[in-house]
Design goal:
mainly beta, 7 strands, seven-stranded antiparallel β-sheet
Length: about 90
């Protein structure tokens, strides 16, 4: 499982309370091509403080290349950036 953080583009939805839900994200693979991965299920959601920044951690599950994969997306609230932490 890859653990170094990578900034990714995320399509997310927001409800009336301001809660964020990632729907899909775009990642550049090793060949330099961009792939879009749909978030099939959010397994766990927790709020953590990383280096003084509040981050929302989503443990998610998707099917990639006909295999079920678990990964972590983190949303940094103050900068509105998304990171892929584990894949």
């Amino acid at each position: 499982m890859r653990t170094n953080p990578r900034e990714v583009e995320v399509l997310a939805s927001f409800d009336q309370s301001g809660n964020v839900r990632p729907l899909r994200f775009r990642i550049e693979d090793d060949m330099g091509e961009k792939r879009t991965i749909k978030v099939d299920r959010i397994i766990q959601l927790e709020v953590e403080k990383l280096a003084g920044n509040i981050m929302i951690k989503y443990r998610c599950q998707s099917i990639m290349n006909n295999q079920e994969r678990v990964f972590e997306l983190k949303y940094e609230r103050d900068t509105y950036k998304w990171y892929l932490f584990k894949m």
